[in-house]
Write a structure and sequence with these properties.
The chain is mostly helical and 73 residues long. The longest helix is centred in the first third of the chain and has 29 residues. It is flat. It starts with a helix and ends in a 43-residue tail after the last helix.
Amino acid sequence: MTKLRLLLLATTTLSVAQFTAPVSHALEADASFRVAQAAPAPEGEPKAPPKAEPKGPPPAAAPRPAAPPAAAP
C-alpha cells in the first residue's frame, strides 16, 4: 500500500510540473516580444491610386439539374 501511495504522489508531482513549466516560460517571453512595423510614408510622396469601380453584379448561378426519375416499385 505504501508503494502505491508513493507512485501516486510521484505521478501527481510530474503532472503538476508539466503545467507549471510553460506558464513560467510564457511570462518570461512576454517582456521581449517585438512587432515589426512599416515606416511611415514621406509627406511629399503621393498615395496609392484609388481602386477601380466594381464592374457589376456577378453572373447568375447555373440552374440546378432535373431530379432523377423515381425508382420503380
